[in-house]
Amino acid sequence: MNPENELQNGEDEHSRRPKYTILLPTYNEAENLPICIWLINKYLNELNYEVLIIDDNSPDGTQDIAKKLCNEFGNDKIILLTREGKLGLGSAYVFGLKQARGDFVILMDADLSHHPKHIPEMIALQNKNNVIGHADHESELRIRLFRTPDPNSTKSNSGPIRAESNGIKIIRFR
C-alpha cells in the first residue's frame, strides 16, 4: 500500500474518501490548460483528487503555465510531469499511471473537447454500477456497463472492447 494512502485516525476502509488521479496529457495546451484546471477544480472541489499534467516538452509555454497552476492550486493538487520530446498520448497515459496515487484514475484530454462537468456523474455511476464512461465528440455522456466478478477489470460478452485514446474514462486503480 502506498504510505500516502494509508488509513489515519482510526478510519476504516469504508469511511476513507477515495482519491482520484486525473491524467492530463498536454502538448501545446497553454491556452486551454488554465481553463481545464479551473473547471476540474470547480466540479471536483469536494473530492479528494490530484491532477497529473504530463507535458511532452510543449514549445508554447504549457510548462510555464502548468507551474503557475501548481503554485496557485497547490503542489499536492496539481503536479507537473515533464517528458523530453513529443512522445505521444498513449505513452503519456502509461507514464502518468506509473505516478498515479489515486484509488481511481481518470483519463481525459486537456483540449476541452470533453467538459470536466461530466466527471462527477461518471464517478457516481462508477461507484454505483462499476461502469466505464465515455464522452464522445459532442461531449454527451455515454455509459457502457460491463459487470464483472472482479471490480478491477472489465470485459464484454458481446465482443471486444475498443481501446480509444480520446474521451473521458475512469478506472479503478487500487
Coarse shape: globular
Q: What kind of oligomer do you see?
A: single chain
What is the total number of structural domains? Answer: 1
The structure class reads: alpha/beta
Name of the CATH superfamily: Spore Coat Polysaccharide Biosynthesis Protein SpsA, Chain A
How many strands? 7
Order of helices and strands: EHEHEHEHEEE
CATH topology: Spore Coat Polysaccharide Biosynthesis Protein SpsA, Chain A
CATH architecture classification name = Alpha-Beta Complex
Segments where pLDDT lies below 50 for 5+ residues? 1-7, 10-14, 134-165
Biggest sheet layout: 5 strands, mixed
Proportion of residues in helical segments: 25-40%
Strands across the major sheet, in which order?
A: 3-2-1-4-7
Separation, N- and C-terminal Cα atoms:
9 Å
**Average residue pLDDT:** 76
Helix count equals 4
Radius of gyration (Å):
16 Å
Summary keywords:
dolichyl-phosphate beta-D-mannosyltransferase activity, two-stranded antiparallel ribbon, disordered N terminus, 174 residues, single chain, 26% helix, Dolichol-phosphate mannosyltransferase subunit 1, Spore Coat Polysaccharide Biosynthesis Protein SpsA, Chain A, 4 helices, alpha/beta
